[in-house]
Amino acid sequence: MTPSLSTVETRDAALFEYALRLGDDSLILSQRLGEWCGHAPVLEVDLSLANLGLDLIGQAILFLGIAGTVEGQGRDADRLAFHRDVLGFRNCLMVEQPNGDFAQTMARQFLFSTWQEMLFGHLEGSTDDFIASVAAKAVKEVRYHAELSAEWVIRLGDGTDESRRRMIDGLDWHWRFGCWYSSRYSR
């Protein structure tokens, strides 16, 4: 049985929205991480955060590219990334939060990357071949992101009273914006 036109249109609309959200999450977080360039505590961390941001930009390009293709209106990843009104973005609230201090940034990165690793691990089994292939590549990247940020969560949490307090505050702040609270990704 061939799917009806409305079924195909509904599937394409859902795929557009889903890919747009995934792309926007990665795009916005990459921009937030880019704000640390030249401002991280040490050069090695500065470079690590820049590399995380570059991984996220790569993911954003792929997901926004999928969205543009299924939308069928001639918009590519760049047009979706840079030629939309701010209200047209569909990212989760966590990724757009200000960086705050380094502990707050690492808390956000830990929570988001851990969630993203689980999501992409699940999406590797997607029936959409392109989503599955992007997820298979991205899960390896975000696994590193989660490991790096987890090391900082532990390091700051086990450090001085001040660094522990800042890490707890960062986790408390970002927890309320968790993507896992949103049913939008369960479709």
Please give a structural write-up:
The chain has 187 residues and is mostly helical. Helices cover 72% and strands 0% of the residues. Helix 2 packs antiparallel against helix 6, helix 5 packs antiparallel against helix 6 and helix 5 packs across helix 7. The C terminus is likely disordered.
Compile the SSE list and pairings.
Elements: H1 5-34, H2 43-71, H3 77-82, H4 93-96, H5 102-123, H6 129-157, H7 161-175
Helix pairs in contact: 1-2, 2-6, 5-6, 5-7
Give a short synopsis of this structure.
Helix content is 72%, strand content 0%.
Structural class: mainly alpha
Domains, number: 1
CATH topology call: Ferritin
First-residue to last-residue Cα separation? 24 Å
CATH architecture: Up-down Bundle
- Outline, from the CA principal axes? elongated
Largest sheet: none
Keywords:
mainly alpha; elongated; 187 residues; Ferritin; 7 helices; disordered C terminus
